[in-house]
């Protein structure tokens, strides 16, 4: 019998892999009920590309929760994390495997830390920045601030030859600011069950 | 301005916004409230210079030397060898003043003249190219009149400029104010003003840095978000304009 969840994840993974390779910036619109599958697909893709360098900005879920879901993460030195919510929530542990940002409102700091993660990486290495997610960023910041942040970030990543993958979690209808900024990406993936 | 006429701070984005660096021999007021990063900025400036062979001196009035060095040890830019080798000299000005009998609550004109001579002599003797007084506010407290303050800073700046020594003077101001100095005179004599402040975004304070004035160069007046971290010291990135 076909395991539906695994097939969805494999489908999403394939779409991410193909899009991220070709396009400089990819926006992923994912329904709330498919978010967990999407994360699994994304991490599976990240872990199968160990020659690439990944910086993962966690705003939806704290690093600790991600680590619990994805237990072998510490084996992948090519994946680095920036956690924007644990300090604000009072659940951060000491720095080590992860860079903690004091508050998700400190978007300039997020941008600085993200760019610093790629410093000294050889030019020929593929570099990817994941924003998880713009929707969560909107919870803590005004929409205009997130819009400005994302405009600058997209331009910075393009200037530094870094691929970006930014996620938007879609509920009933996409927020008007999110629908505006997500289309700044070169490619949009809409996650649907019809992927399979 | 030719590259040789500029003093690079070694703080990447700061130098870019200055168009390469600070004109040699300038006196720059580094303004900020308590905890705004004045001392860190000054120390990083001195240490970066020393790493490029420029001898430096840091005069502290507000903080004992042992505390200053202890705080510095946490930063990756700090190199103890530079202190031990005399490339960066840390001097407690209160101790020197006391030894020279300049321990009155308020200085006379002669006392101020004597202190000025000491500072010049030390700078000359050590052949420093970078000098910091932390803080000029504390030093000016002992000068009795605005004329004495003006005269002191002017003479200090002139003497050090003649030695091509670029000077940072830290200026303490209350938080959330747009004053550049306590006595409201220092900024008119200084060649440059760097303002360290903060903005409130949803209750969180974001550090900022703005170059308000720098004589002799075309510089950015944009407000930057400033980060201070142990592994990279001071870093700047443009501040988001939308106010949350």
Mean of all residue-level pLDDT scores of chain B: 93
Tell me the overall shape of chain A. Answer: globular
Adjacency order of strands in the biggest sheet of chain B? 5-4-6-7-3-8-9-10-11
Which shape of chain B, going by the Cα principal axes?
A: globular
Number of helices of chain B: 9
Structural class estimated from helices and strands of chain B? alpha/beta
Q: What is the string of SSEs of chain A from the N terminus onward?
A: HEHEHEHEHEHHEHE
What's the level 1 CATH class of chain A?
A: Alpha Beta
Question: Treating each run of at least 4 consecutive H or I residues as one helix, how many helices of chain A?
Answer: 8
Radius of gyration of chain A, CA atoms, in whole angstroms: 16 Å
Please identify the oligomeric state.
Answer: heterodimer
| Topology, number of strands of chain A | 7
Computed structural class of chain A: alpha/beta
Main sheet makeup of chain A: 7 strands, parallel
CATH superfamily of chain B: P-loop containing nucleotide triphosphate hydrolases
How much strand of chain B? 25-35%
Overall mean confidence score, pLDDT of chain A: 88
Distance between the termini of chain B: 39 Å
Task: Explain briefly what this protein structure is.
The complex is a heterodimer of chains A (196) and B (244). Chain A is α/β, with parallel strands linked by helices.
Question: Which structural traits does this protein have?
Answer:
heterodimer; A: 196 residues; alpha/beta; Rossmann fold; seven-stranded parallel sheet; B: 244 residues; nine-stranded mixed sheet; two-stranded antiparallel ribbon; 11 strands
